[in-house]
Request: fold
Amino acid sequence: MTFTTARRMDLIKPNAVGELLRFGSDPAIISFAGGYPDATLFPREALAEVYRQAIAEEGQSSLQYTVSNGPEKLREQVAGRLVEQGIQCSADDVLMLQGSQQGLDLVAKLLVNPGDVVITESPTFLGAPIAFDPCEPRYRSVAMDDDGMDMDQLEEVLKSEPNIKFIYTIPDFQNPTGLCLSLPRRRRLIELANQYNCVVLEDTAYREVRFTGETLPTLKSMDTEGRVILLGSFSKILAPGLRLGYAVAERGFIEQLGLLKLAADTQCSTVNMAAVSLYLSRFDINAHIATLQGNYLRKKNLMLDAIRQHFPQDVRCTDPQGGLFTWLTFPDGFDTEAFMRRRAVPEAKVAFVPGASFFAEAPEHNHARFNFSCQSDDKILAGIAALGLALKSEMAMGA
Amino acid sequence: MTFTTARRMDLIKPNAVGELLRFGSDPAIISFAGGYPDATLFPREALAEVYRQAIAEEGQSSLQYTVSNGPEKLREQVAGRLVEQGIQCSADDVLMLQGSQQGLDLVAKLLVNPGDVVITESPTFLGAPIAFDPCEPRYRSVAMDDDGMDMDQLEEVLKSEPNIKFIYTIPDFQNPTGLCLSLPRRRRLIELANQYNCVVLEDTAYREVRFTGETLPTLKSMDTEGRVILLGSFSKILAPGLRLGYAVAERGFIEQLGLLKLAADTQCSTVNMAAVSLYLSRFDINAHIATLQGNYLRKKNLMLDAIRQHFPQDVRCTDPQGGLFTWLTFPDGFDTEAFMRRRAVPEAKVAFVPGASFFAEAPEHNHARFNFSCQSDDKILAGIAALGLALKSEMAMGA
Reply:
């Protein structure tokens, strides 16, 4: 049959994310593409033990349906960890999600009519526009520098657009740049959101993977008017295969997001929520995170040193204090997507994410996102060296 | 802050589903409300073993991200089970979902513009309109009798409405009535869908829990034009806490639903998909389903016998050949919701679902859905007896 899709589907196109996930599963390619944590560091023994307990001892409840927002115990544990970070909240302010990605889908459903404006950083997480697109927003994007989103430009946008629904930001180790929003800008962002009365969607997926420098307060902890919806995730600090994230916000938001969650998929996996709750009770997740931090710092340094050694001098990269990514900027006119398809994958057998995918408005083609957390030390060195060779051929040809 | 929600939120109201899940977790109440399978029959030992293997032996992949549609092996296994049921399909025609509920959300997103028409059975699964509502459809509902949806009335609706996007049907052991669509009507439904060129959304969540009578072919197996999207689930045959379902359809549908799935929550839980795949390889799910069938037949008979014994003669109920539910019809003018709030919960300590929740258009108030799979034999007998007493008081008062 031929069928007519809904209007929103005009916006939904095959995109880079699906391809990344495929590169990640091809053993012939060294992939710096996906936002994958290091699989060798998953706490497998501890997780095997809590799943055993959840299923063998508590299976009558942990394999059954549960309350849609997530079991109260787990929501208390999530709230408890956030209280330690200076966020006033309790279990009732928490909604468990199928990864923080689901929060992007639900917040757009909650707030966005077709044509309403969503403000993103430029560049921004490529999973965000694809989640927002079904609600048909218009995007306005705000440039970043080393201190994060440019607040003067943000104010210009806030002044010029009447129907702004929310500002989407990743203040800590932003995806894709690895950069943080500075403390003065965090204060200013909250002031601007208050002044122009819009919601702030704060994505903290990478926040706890800080391996150097001082922790900055969340926007949510500075929020005196209940306008920040914080999204968090266990994907980077425990394991992405659990698909567990959460939203923390004013109860009015949580109630409505909870109705949308119930409608979208009933609830998260009871057994995964039970296992994570047991893990948080029985094991020291902060000690596990400290292990991740040490490893990711080493790998970040390894990758940056190798880039400096093997890549042409005029390729720059960010030096992040946490997270999983560094953001590369190639000379003007260099097209990273063409390079990846022509040389990086077929010749060097290395994948990354061309930067154009990360722009909600005008794409820039001379950037790339490199993940440093996923591959082994050896593969980081081999991959960057091979890419360096391919880059030099490419640039020599272009010159 | 006060915030303006999107227009679609006008349709999203607190509803019966959330309340049901709460009744299900209150130990003081005997709840016949939720669509819960019998938790004592979950194959806990087998599941504990496959989770052990998935995490301890294969954790580096099973705790990591995977391809968004689900691992190929699992999709092959799902397709293989459907091929045995006469459906031509392969792994590429399968999309793994966060329960079949997610399929309802994604199919509406794929097809429905505001104001487009969705046809449902009357009554219909109460989780369906809440999933469709964010896309702002208009509903036309078609009455049911003992042979399922009335095909003449369906044709009238198809003739009268130009913008019908899909027909939503649960042909096997429908939720809430427990009834099946007869074979001649299945043939006619496919003819009508072909004639009026609409998609059929076939929800088979209860299909494999047939405990008596002959299996009828799926609509998908009769579909010669690729217009049926079949939704299936492991919730009723394995465990709902895994949150695993699937869509099977033409590749064009699967590709677009896959993009929406990726945007909505990236993927299902890798560890749950790995565990179910191992379960299907190592254990005999059909033998497990046969155990469920025997138990649910016994419980269905127990509940129906108790209803006949304790309830007034003029309360009728369906006698399903499978599934989890019987549908009760009380005398005209009896309001099951008022009865539940006034007497059933506070006096008899028994919950069920008042029927009005199951109507997408004009609600009827003299029905109720009773689940017979979840409670123990003793609680079924005690709950129905207590309800019988409360009913007699209520009806005496009303008379």
